[in-house]
Amino acid sequence: MAIGALRALADSGTRMRAGDLGQRIGASAGFVPQVMAPLTRAGWVDSARGPTGGYRIQVSLDEISVLEVIEAVEGPVDTTTCVLRGGPCGSSELCSVHFPVQEARTALLARLASVPVDSRNYEEPLK
User: Fold this and answer.
1) 14: CATH
2) Which has more confidence, 41 or 78?
């Protein structure tokens, strides 16, 4: 929803009230502040109260990557949890899939970091 909210704000070009933004992203007006709080903390969105208040985009969406939005909303991406053990792989004894999983995670994070939020139909194949 966060990426949809950023896109809706960028498309509108004006300040949007929570109810209007909620309609655009398929969320209730009461849930919109929860979606917007991390985006506001990141400095990407301005929030104002009152009759002329609402949310307004503060940056160009080509300045923000999909990974940045994920991490703003969810926190830093965990790259240390073992998919087999549920905790970190031991330094002396790595699990049997440690290296392939680590390689896949690294590729995924690099890909998400390379895709700007303004990409509507990102179709460039992974190299």
Assistant:
1) 1.10.10.10
2) 41
